[in-house]
């Protein structure tokens, strides 16, 4: 029998599915197991962990634990830069591209509004999500922790809040998106990249007041939706407006 002590830090404690009262967790296992399986057995997906110390030494997810070890588990740090060899979450190889599961449609809408390439279908099954994630090298966003625990998931995030605006704030913080925004350059309906369109080309689709007061328009080449700089930004939740205008 293997006896272990685990200490979860930061908001990882909120994800634990076992009783802990804010104290270290004690586990007894019949056989050696990997750090990844040990952590996920407590309810925390590997995507939420950026540093593991086993008896104060950095450890990989694949390391097998041994009897009597003390294991410290940390989420990604926002103010501390870890040596690259210690980080378990690898840097993105390019611009952030997201894939939202069926329960995060509003979050997908907001990310597209901020200019981020975000795939979403309201009927996608888990298998389809994993296939698309791997094929298109996307960051998987889901509140299904078992889905995030899949070995194929390299980059992912489990939003903590039920509120889509707070979920957006979480994703911005986790992936440092504030300086990467390009507001109103993607279609929130279908994720297409918007392009400028001449007013005369779409004038028959405009309401009288829109025709009178606005001169600059964009259109999605994929779904045909037309956009203009109206009162949309002013009507947005102020928390979203701040994210879109700060970067």
UniProtKB/TrEMBL annotation:
A Pfam family matched in the record: Mut7-C
Keywords: Coiled coil
Residue runs in coiled coils: 116-143
Family annotation (InterPro entries): Mut7-C_RNAse_dom, Ub_Mut7C
All residue ranges annotated as the Mut7-C RNAse domain in the record: 97-237
Ranges where the Ubiquitin Mut7-C domain occurs: 3-80
Protein name per the record: Twitching motility protein PilT
């Amino acid at each position: 029998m293997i006896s272990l002590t685990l200490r979860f830090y930061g908001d990882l404690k909120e994800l634990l599915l076992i009783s802990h009262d804010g104290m270290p967790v004690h586990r007894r296992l019949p056989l050696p197991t990997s750090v990844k399986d040990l952590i996920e057995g407590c309810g925390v997906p590997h995507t939420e962990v950026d540093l593991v110390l086993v008896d104060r030494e950095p450890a990989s997810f694949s390391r097998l634990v041994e009897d009597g070890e003390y294991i410290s588990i940390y989420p990604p740090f926002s103010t501390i830069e870890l040596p690259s060899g210690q980080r378990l979450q690898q840097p993105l190889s390019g611009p952030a591209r997201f894939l939202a599961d069926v329960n995060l449609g509003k979050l997908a809408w907001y990310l597209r509004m901020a200019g981020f390439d975000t795939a979403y279908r309201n009927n996608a099954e888990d298998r389809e999500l994993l296939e698309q994630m791997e094929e298109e090298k996307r960051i998987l966003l889901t509140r299904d922790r078992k889905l995030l625990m899949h070995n194929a998931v390299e980059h992912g995030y489990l939003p903590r809040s039920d509120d889509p605006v707070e979920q957006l704030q979480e994703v911005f913080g986790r992936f440092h998106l504030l300086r990467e925004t390009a507001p109103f350059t993607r279609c929130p309906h279908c994720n297409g990249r918007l392009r400028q369109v001449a007013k005369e080309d779409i004038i028959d689709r405009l309401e009288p007041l829109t025709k009178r007061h606005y001169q600059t328009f964009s259109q999605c080449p994929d779904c045909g939706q037309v956009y203009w700089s109206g009162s949309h930004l002013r009507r947005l939740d102020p928390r979203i407006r701040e994210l879109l205008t700060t970067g």
